[in-house]
Automatic annotation (TrEMBL):
Stated family: Belongs to the 3-oxoacid CoA-transferase subunit A family.
Protein name per Swiss-Prot or TrEMBL: 3-oxoacid CoA-transferase subunit A
Annotated SMART domains: CoA_trans (SM00882)
GO molecular function, one term: CoA-transferase activity
Length: 232
């Protein structure tokens, strides 16, 4: 099966439709699938539901799709770095489903593992628990969280082989693997593609069976919060 495509537009061909759900990897601005996000913007696909740890920043990452009003709903745990997101949410233009960070990661992992739901104590007694099933285990109250199954997963890895086995670097490993597994189709962008058999099997973070399409590209190394101190 040929998995390598010439670019983001080609890799997304035939996969995008209005109203779809997309699981996007990344943590802050680390390991975000920036090339695929830009291609989705250019395709004009709208009314999107996006499950992602964060919503990017103004002018970069998922912030691009917010600026063009292509996102209907965000399923996220942290949205504090995007002024346009805040404006749309407070004005009622954007729907937000808040998730504790670990819960969101587990919802993606569960969806990828074929688990429809799980019970957790996280969020009990808060607005997170409103409208959800409550159950008691060993004298403690738990709430039911549903697994996420997306129409498409978009992820960013450091290195891949030609069969789609992926290696992530450091913080990029936080949300990319579970996001990749929960999509019916997964498209990955990487910095380098090496021949099959080149990667140490013990160092592969995501097996290629989860990855359907693959692109290689140049990526911007952004710093989310640049803090410097004055010269002494």
């Amino acid at each position: 099966m040929q998995k390598i495509y010439s670019g983001a537009e080609a890799a997304l061909k035939g996969l995008l439709f209005d109203g779809m759900t997309i699981a996007a990897g990344g943590f802050g601005l680390c390991g975000i699938p920036e090339l695929l996000i830009a291609a989705i913007r250019d395709a004009g696909t709208k009314q999107l539901t996006i499950a992602s740890n964060n919503a990017g920043v103004d002018g970069f990452g998922l912030g691009l799709l917010l600026e063009t009003r292509q996102v209907r709903k965000m399923i996220s745990s942290y949205v504090g770095e995007n002024a346009e997101f805040m404006r749309q949410y407070l004005s009622g233009e954007l729907e937000l489903e808040f998730n504790p960070q670990g819960t969101l990661a587990e919802r993606m992992r569960a969806g990828g593992a074929g688990i429809p739901g799980f019970y957790t104590r996280t969020g009990v007694g808060t607005v997170i628990a409103e409208g959800k099933d409550h159950k008691e285990f060993d004298g403690e109250t738990f709430i039911l969280e549903r697994g996420i199954v997306a129409d498409l997963s978009i992820v960013k890895a450091w290195k891949a082989d030609t069969t789609g086995n992926l290696v992530f670097r450091k913080t990029a490993r936080n949300f990319n693997p579970p996001a990749a597994t929960c999509g019916r189709v997964c498209v990955a962008e990487v910095e380098e593609i090496v021949p099959a058999g080149s990667l140490d099997p013990d160092l592969i973070h995501l097996p290629g069976i989860y990855v359907h399409r693959l692109i290689q590209g140049e990526h911007e190394k952004r710093i989310e919060q640049r803090t410097v101190r004055k010269r002494v």
